[in-house]
Amino acid sequence: MVSTFHGLEMAKRALNAQQSALYTTSHNISNANTVGYTRQRVNFEQMNSLSVSREPGGVVSGVGSGVQAGSIERIRDQFLDTQYRKENSKFGYYATNASALKQMENLLNEPTEEGLAFVLEDFFNSLQDLNGSADHSGTRTVVAQRAEAVVETFRYLVSSIQDVQDDLKNQIDVTEEDINSMLRQIANINNEIAGIEPHGLVPNDLYDERDRLIDSLSTIIDIEVSYDKSSGQPSPIAEGIATIELRNGEERINLVDGKTRSHSEVKIIPGENNNISQITVTNDHPDVEIDNGTINAFEFKSIGSLQSLFEMNGYIDENNEAVGYYNEVKADLETMLTTYVDKFNEVHRAGFDLDGDPGVNFFIFENPDDQLGSIAVNPDILANPDLIAASLTPDGGTGDGTNAINLAEVYNDLDVGLGTRTSVKSFYQSLIGELGVRANEANRMQTNSQVLRQQVEENRMAVSSVSLDEEITNLIKFQHAYNAAARSMTAVDEMLDRIINNMGLVGR
Known about the structure:
Blueprint: H1 6-30, E1 40-46, E2 50-52, E3 59-61, E4 67-74, H2 78-108, H3 116-132, H4 137-196, H5 204-220, E5 223-228, E6 241-248, E7 251-257, E8 262-263, E9 265-270, E10 276-282, E11 294-296, H6 305-313, E12 315-316, E13 322-323, H7 325-349, E14 363-365, H8 371-374, E15 375-377, H9 379-383, H10 402-409, H11 424-464, H12 468-502
Antiparallel strand pairs: 1-4, 2-3, 5-6, 6-7, 7-8, 9-10, 10-11, 12-13, 14-15
């Protein structure tokens, strides 16, 4: 037989349970715009109606005992999290690629009047003009000045490319700090969770913060996340301690160890000229062993923004050579420049200046170890444009500009040494064309990966994000349930009042 006050107790439990649901709903609404927040819900549990009895079997089923607020859990799908992080890594890679290639396009600035092609065309035209007025000092001065513009443009390009590479190297350094900071924070959160879960509690807000950090980390590198159960008596819905591994092809390298609740430190080691040489992963915990903790830069295949930064900035390959897109562009420009200069100087030396003397080198390299950055017009020619060897013969007359045509045609010479039927002009056009194709491909892949990531994100948000319409509906639902529980308590109270205060008065 149930207690006289059983109804009051059952109504009180209902009030407490619905009140918990109302508070949780208010918490969801408060965090509707909080980045990384996962909506929560109260799991109602039916109270056990079985009681101990002397009847055969030892238990007896009585009147129900009501409801209680069991646990408050996050609405989260780990499968969608895994999908999102994979797509996030790809997006980080292609977005960084597109950004770096966009910077290169801005540097080369083609096709515009400020680009190298326009400056070379101007120089080519000035040499053709010299053919018809080889004895005109103004025309010779124009040739010298436009040659100086070519030199300044080359120097500006190499300086600007180096500046961007320095920025990329700084970005790599910042990324290294970000990775280590995230790993440290995730390990700290693991420690906090490990101290809470054994008591049967569920730290949802800590889970949210940990997932937010893991999502951010997945933009930089490709990671694999697993979870270990906490010790003690954790709740069945407790998520446990996260272990994070770096995916490098088929290899797995420990970054955060859930069993020891420790974290590794990532160090990016530069080589010559800030080209990346190696990556090291170390963990000082005595119980953690990291296989292949040193990764050569050319072996690093963990897709993400970090890999893209390596490929754009430059890294050391298996032949100990500096490779990477920006290095390739510099090497192509240097090949084009040195080939053009060597051929141009050869043709210029074959001619004669205005005084009938053999031509000298028109261009010089002030620093043989940095030809691209030290190209210059012979200062003697800048000081005296009469030294320009526009004539083919020493006695060809002051108006002979035949060699000027030969000098101009170096720009279009198909046998200059840059490849089969490849001139300086077509070589540079090919370089620009390749950049355009590569940039378009990077932009296309960035868009595609962004769309795929967005689709997974929308699926994840459909499960985990706060819907204000749904929460308002829940508010009304729980409010009505609370009011009904209160009315139930009032009914029981009136019944008890009738029993206690009004029964037994007949005949008095």
